[in-house]
Design brief:
With 726 residues, the chain is of the alpha/beta class. It is 27% helix and 19% strand. It is globular, with a radius of gyration of 26 Å. The two termini are 19 Å apart. The structure holds beta-D-glucopyranose. Beta-D-glucopyranose is lined by residues 46, 64, 122, 169, 248-249, 376.
Length: 726
């Protein structure tokens, strides 16, 4: 737990505040730079708090987001640039299964936050991937709450090690963008406790984040930001949260209810300027106190929560920020995180490549490589190395003529209105370009004179919109498929290889085309160092060691959350989580549905052997130890996963659940590592009404290289059932 000191006398300040000032402290200053509000001290920041100079309270600044600090790189009349590093998207960070990398990324982002004059980073975003089509899945870690919680805890610790705050969002069950401001998420308490709340609980307990952002949606009928059960009972009383809660931007509809529920701060404030039907929060809070509808004690409590945290912030401490974070060092960290987050999905003996091989690069994604998604999860880095230049700089022998054609094509097409960004400017929809632009004869020519075809397939999504189960989105478009078929057929006829690079933020359908090609490398949206990461992986300087934090289903019809995004589908008011606790692999594994690529899956250029499993039960802790050995010819890292299959007694249970994992060090050929992991028994319980239940019976311990590649099994017996408090 992070120790917090608060050098200011909060009680004294609270006693000196007027009612107006109190209301100002719990409401943001308005969206900076819009609706007549002054711009933020840090242009591009998402919000600011009111200062109260007479009491020495400065304004504090909050800025997004999960893939890097999101501020404006260019300021009027100022020749300096304010770029921040674009790190890999969160789902790629989770694919590393390496908390140390998350800590490093968090620490690097924290430095940028601090040196650019920001106090709180509005990240990490940790909503569960309930459905592959949620438009913001790229910003979120995983379908599994344990992996998500562990990775996000390390990230939060990294950010906060710089003396700035993190914000875990969006609390809770905010798993879609369709009608996100009003949708009512209807979900059982068991699914909430075991899946949707679980990762937040882990982060709160392990990393004490400074802040939590309550979500837009309603939870079982009441807005998350107005839900006392959620924000006070669960978050503070049960989990011991010590920071403050802020709303998501313009969330909810009743400032007084927000105050009472324990939603300490309303952001960005002055919602009435945007939505006239909404109340002026400050005036409403003042009159509620005057009319006895809101106790001043509640207001004071919320202010204490806020000041306890903000008094630690750089702004309060008078920190003189440099506007010069160490971007060069952070570029290396971004590269390192991307390198560990690559997931090799297929490799039929073709990768890594030899540098002398001649490469024909297909697809506009070689030029328009997607670094990350749109909306508040976007970033403005100094540069993005696209795949073409990454390969070029590495010295690969690229078919220039072909790549130049793509360059020209992209330039021409983006001039046309049809292919310009659409939708709201802060989160545009970027239309995909048709991909089938090379004729069969031309492919023939490229196949003759090159050794390898590399085809880039890209997708981008973002805040405000969900993806769709249609061609060009979840499925390949007809022209993408034509390109794949044409290139594979022709290159294979000449005995040449075909590799697909998937530059995407969430699962797409792969099953129908995976056998057309020889290798598939999932690079997600890897941030600014994209091209370097791809080049180094193709050549084998990076040995892919990422594993999937989400299942890739064979078809959309296999997905358990079949009613996404709610009913009626065109304009849903409500979304019922009928699949309950059976989210992701918990569903696929329990009900025998075979995915294209299971949770936890990922290949390597080397091979690993697992042996010597030992299990032991000691003082309510399960101790699991085993050895992993690199049995191949290249150095590499392995992600060993511990699943537990609990007895199905009183309660229904998934076939297995992830309860521990470990990423090995870089193992040389022949080298091995002994691994020892501890799992508190409380973590293998199920929610049973008002408590956690550990049922008696036999528990199978399954050590796997993925959820469907179990290498070692063991058993422990729990003689007597046991319960644990919430
Ligand atoms: C998003 C948040 C973000 C906030 C401020 C909202 O629209 O949902 O994730 O932090 O805007 O930009």
């Amino acid at each position: 737990m992070v120790k917090m000191t608060h050098p200011i006398d909060i009680d004294k300040i609270v006693s000196q505040l007027s009612l107006e000032e109190k209301a100002m402290l719990v409401v943001g200053r308005g969206m900076p730079g819009s609706s007549g509000n002054p711009p933020s001290r840090v242009p591009g920041a998402a919000g600011e708090t009111y200062p109260i100079p007479r009491l020495g309270i400065p304004p504090t600044v909050f800025a997004d987001g999960p893939a890097g600090l999101r501020i404006k790189p260019v300021r009027e009349g100022d020749s300096q640039r304010y770029h921040a590093t674009a790190f890999p998207i969160a789902v790629m960070l989770a694919s590393t299964w390496n908390p140390e990398i998350l800590y490093k990324v968090g620490r690097a982002m924290g430095e940028e936050v601090k040196e650019y004059g920001v106090d709180i980073l509005l990240a990490p975003a940790i909503n569960i991937h309930r459905n592959p089509l949620c438009g913001r899945n790229f910003e979120y870690y995983s379908e599994d709450p344990f992996l998500s919680g562990e990775m996000a805890s390390a990230f939060v610790k990294g950010v906060q090690s710089r003396g700035v705050g993190a914000c875990i969002k969006h609390f809770v069950a905010n798993n879609q963008e369709t009608n996100r401001y009003t949708i009512d998420t209807v979900v059982s308490e068991r699914a909430l406790r075991e899946i949707y709340l679980r990762n937040f609980e882990i982060v709160v307990k392990k990393a004490q984040p400074w802040t939590v952002m309550s979500a837009y949606n309603k939870l079982n009928g009441s807005y998350c930001s107005q839900n006392k059960w959620l924000l006070t009972k669960v978050l503070r009383e049960e989990w011991g949260f010590q920071g403050f809660v802020m709303t998501d931007w313009y969330a909810g509809d009743d400032p007084v209810e927000q105050m009472k529920a324990g939603n300490d701060m309303i952001m960005p404030g002055k919602a009435y300027q945007v939505d006239k039907s909404k109340k002026d929060e400050i005036k409403e809070i003042i009159s509620a106190v005057k009319e006895g509808r809101l106790s001043e004690d509640v207001l004071d409590r919320n202010i204490r929560n806020i000041l306890r945290i903000l008094s630690q912030s750089p702004s309060f401490q008078g920190y003189k920020y440099s506007n010069k974070p160490d971007l060069d060092d952070h570029a290396k960290i971004s590269y390192e995180a991307g390198a560990e987050g690559l997931v090799l999905l297929e490799n039929r003996g073709v990768l890594p490549l030899d540098k002398n091989e001649r490469i024909a690069l297909f697809g506009t994604g070689q030029i328009e490589t997607i670094k990350g998604g749109t909306g508040s999860g976007d970033t403005h880095p100094r540069y993005v190395i696209n795949i073409l230049s990454g390969l070029d700089l590495k010295g690969f022998r690229i078919d220039r003529e072909l790549s130049n054609r793509y360059k020209k094509y992209v330039d021409e097409m983006r001039q046309k209105d049809e292919y310009k960004p659409k939708g709201v400017p802060w989160s545009p929809i970027i239309p995909s370009l048709p991909q089938d632009i090379i004729t069969e004869d031309e492919v023939e020519k490229y196949a003759q004179r090159n050794d390898v075809a590399v085809i880039v397939i890209s997708r981008i999504s973002g805040e405000n919109y969900d993806r769709k189960p249609i061609k060009g989105d979840f499925y390949l478009s007809d022209d993408e498929k034509n390109l794949l078929e044409k290139v594979s057929k022709t290159f294979h006829r000449y005995g040449k290889k075909v590799i697909v690079i998937l530059n995407i933020g969430a699962p797409i359908e792969i099953e129908s085309w995976k056998n057309l090609v020889d290798a598939i490398l999932l690079i997600w949206q890897p941030g600014q160092e994209a091209g370097h990461i791809v080049a180094d992986a193709l050549i084998g300087e990076i040995n892919p060691s990422g594993k999937l934090p989400v299942t890739f289903p064979k078809d959309y019809s296999d997905v358990p959350s079949w009613n996404f995004p709610g009913t009626p589908p065109e304009d849903p008011k409500k979304v019922v989580y009928f699949e309950d606790i059976y989210v992701g692999y918990r569903y696929y594994d329990t009900f025998g549905i075979e995915p294209s690529y299971p949770f936890g899956y990922g290949l390597s250029y080397t091979t690993f052997e697992y042996r010597d499993l030992k299990t032991e039960l000691k003082n309510d802790v399960l101790i699991v130890s085993f050895t992993v050995k690199n049995t191949g010819r290249r150095k590499g890292k392995e992600v060993a996963q511990v699943y537990i299959s609990a007895p199905r007694g009183k309660l229904d249970k998934p076939l297995q659940e992830l309860k521990a994992f470990y990423k090995t060090k870089l193992l040389m050929p022949g080298e091995e590592e002994k691994i020892k992991l501890e799992i508190p028994l409380r973590d293998i319980t199920s929610f049973d009404g008002g408590e956690w239940l550990l049922e008696a019976g036999e528990y199978e311990i399954r050590i796997g290289a993925s959820s469907r590649d179990i290498r070692l099994t063991g058993k422990i017996t729990i003689e007597e059932e046991k319960t644990y408090k919430l």
